Amino acid sequence: MKITLVGFLLVASAVADQCGSHEYNPETHVCNDNQYVCPILSGEALASCGESCYSYFEYSCDNGKDLVPLPAVDKPFELVTYNLYAPDVHDFPVYACGHRLYFGNGSATCTYCPNMPQLHGLCNDPGLITNRTILLGGSGGYGLATQVPGGQRGFIGPEGGLNYTQAHSASVPNGSQYDGILAYQQGAFIDTKSEFGWAACGQFNADDEVPVWDILAFRKAVVLWDYYDVCAEVKLLVVEADLENGTYVPWQYE
Ligand SMILES: *[C@@H]1O[C@H](CO)[C@@H](O)[C@H](O)[C@H]1NC(C)=O
Ligand SMILES: *[C@@H]1O[C@H](CO)[C@@H](O)[C@H](O)[C@H]1NC(C)=O
Ligand SMILES: *[C@@H]1O[C@H](CO)[C@@H](O)[C@H](O)[C@H]1NC(C)=O
Ligand SMILES: *[C@@H]1O[C@H](CO)[C@@H](O)[C@H](O)[C@H]1NC(C)=O
Ligand SMILES: *[C@@H]1O[C@H](CO)[C@@H](O)[C@H](O)[C@H]1NC(C)=O
């Protein structure tokens, strides 16, 4: 497994800082309220709620002590990447193309619209959504917001990729997972079955190559690791989509 924390390797010293009565390494941990040490996970310095550490993107802290999961998103949404410690993979819109979700300056959404009069404009009119990827949550899984009958279902493939089905087909590769994937309101899109969240992985052969990062469930068992040159931990954040009249979705994603 080749996991490189992009933007993270340059700082390799093991300096210890003081947090109240505890020593901690400021490259891997954060000191909250001058007394609680919490880890930095997937580019997020965890917050403190009483003595617990938590992610702002998964919980709220009630009464200064009780962790409460954020509500599930109930609107169509887009994903944006997050890792405050790795600028190469931070703050990119996530797109769907080639039956996988990915991002980076070299990425784009791939949509298809049949040439049917009643669908005119859904894909190709200026200003309509051709460069965004709109997802739907619910029932512990996710799907793509499409017009095509039957929709397109999201899943994690047996190799660890964040994939979706073809239009007109419910078939997924053997060993795929489509449950345990949650999207929180104003929070994160998470795979509850991954030990470490998501990884962004890219192949970079030439210096002038425009970056494209695939998104994988960050698990020990993922078989695609060797295929990539570099991977970085990343969070996926949910941004509710401002869909006028709910119609600005493509017929299908390719
Ligand atoms: C991506 O494109 C933006 C805008 O052109 C640029 O500022 C940024 O440096 C690029 N990022 C990478 C990683 O290529
Ligand atoms: C999509 O394209 C519009 C119009 O060109 C642009 O303003 C917008 O920033 C793009 N959105 C994304 C997520 O790339
Ligand atoms: C799933 O996603 C991975 C990573 O992006 C990709 O390599 C793979 O081809 C996709 N699998 C399917 C069945 O689309
Ligand atoms: C899918 O996997 C299950 C369990 O490993 C196996 O029993 C089944 O034969 C497989 N199906 C196909 C079509 O490969
Ligand atoms: C949305 O629906 C309203 C009311 O039906 C209509 O007036 C408006 O033009 C629609 N907007 C678009 C962008 O289609």
Strand order of the largest sheet: 10-22-20-21-12-11
Q: What is the number of domains?
A: 1
Following the backbone from N to C, one meets helices and strands in this order, namely EEEEEEEEEEEEEEEEEEEEEEE
**What shape does the CA trace take?**
globular
Extended strand count: 23
Structural class based on helices, strands and sheet pairing: mainly beta
**Distance from first to last alpha carbon:** 30 Å
Low-confidence stretches: 5-12
Strand content: 25-35%
> How many helices?
0
CATH topology call: Trefoil (Acidic Fibroblast Growth Factor, subunit A)
Radius of gyration: 20 Å
Helix fraction by DSSP (H/I, runs of at least 4)? under 10%
CATH architecture field: Trefoil
Structure, described:
- A 6-stranded antiparallel β-sheet has the order 10-22-20-21-12-11, with no helix packed on it.
- The chain is mostly beta strands.
- Mean pLDDT is 87; it is low at 5-12.
- The chain has strands at 17-19, 22-24, 29-32, 36-41, 44-45, 47-49, 52-54, 59-62, 66-69, 77-82, 95-97, 100-103, 111-112, 135-136, 143-144, 152-156, 162-164, 181-183, 189-191, 198-202, 213-217, 230-240, 252-253.
- Bound molecules: 2-acetamido-2-deoxy-beta-D-glucopyranose (NAG) (5 copies).
- Residues 99-100, 157, 161, 163, 173, 214 line the site of one 2-acetamido-2-deoxy-beta-D-glucopyranose.
- It holds the Pfam family Carb_bind.
- One of its GO terms (molecular function) is carbohydrate binding.
